[in-house]
Amino acid sequence: MHSDKLLLDFGSGGKASQRLVSELFLKHLGNSYLNRLDDAALLDITGPLSMSTDTYTVDPIFFPGGDIGSLAVHGTVNDVAMLGAKPRFLSCAFILEEGLDMAVLEKVTASMGEAARKAEVAIVTGDTKVVPRGAVDKIFINTTGIGELLVKDGPSGHKARPGDVILISGTMGDHGLTILSRREGLEFDARIRSDSAPLNLLIEKMIRELPGIHVLRDPTRGGLATTINEIAQQSNVECRLFEDRIPIREEVQGGCSFLGLDPLYLANEGKFICILPGELKERALELMHEDVLGTGACMIGEVRDEHPGKVVLETPLGGNRLLDMLEGEQLPRIC
Ligand code: MG
Asked: What percent of the chain is modeled with pLDDT above 90?
């Protein structure tokens, strides 16, 4: 590029934008769909489809375990996959602050390209807006994803049934604590890093073999506690969690204690909840354990009918308490 800082002209739709597209975006994100540069992408896909959109505003944009670019791919791919779908295509819209270092934009874009290749999805259409200094903080990214359903009557938050078991694919709170500690300039422990990862390939393997999975959901913003409450409400069942079975890294627990945070409310970006009939549990755990993204998978609870719409946390001493949703957002700009 002709400048090492992003100029307003680069989002103008004129020659400067063209150079940005050809010299930066196509270089890192290019594929046979995107390279055509028509007004829209032409997709060879058949329904029913799963579709999801999310806007990424995470601060800081680079963090241990990822950056805003890889997160914008993983977050949307994971949501599309949670309906039992194979994510195929993503759109990508950047809102960029004038004066942003071109090197930063290039690093984020390269990271998006790599994340998309690993998740086996293509970024097929996009948009770039550059706004005056201060109108946005460095870089915001929106991605929308679509995927083909792998099973006819796939998983949904409405399908948890009494007698089901609740599995989790690994440790809770890693992403949320990573972002917060970096933002506060705290470095508790070099081992603390985001779990940001694409879950779709593991989900595909599980859905193909176990189409009877009732619910899949990634506990992102609001963490496990919020997500499991959503499921209890949607399915009108009690979700009972066993506190001592919920995996939390020692260093994450330590950081949370220091900051007065509950890891059950912290965002995850590479984990999922799987709710399914008890007889499918062993095979589901085997499939998860075979994958690097599910090595820490375990059963953390069960679905009952006693307190419909509620989440009950059973403590190690045998006490019970209601695990509620938060009133508002615990941490802004976490994803
Ligand atoms: Mg989700």
From this structure: 85
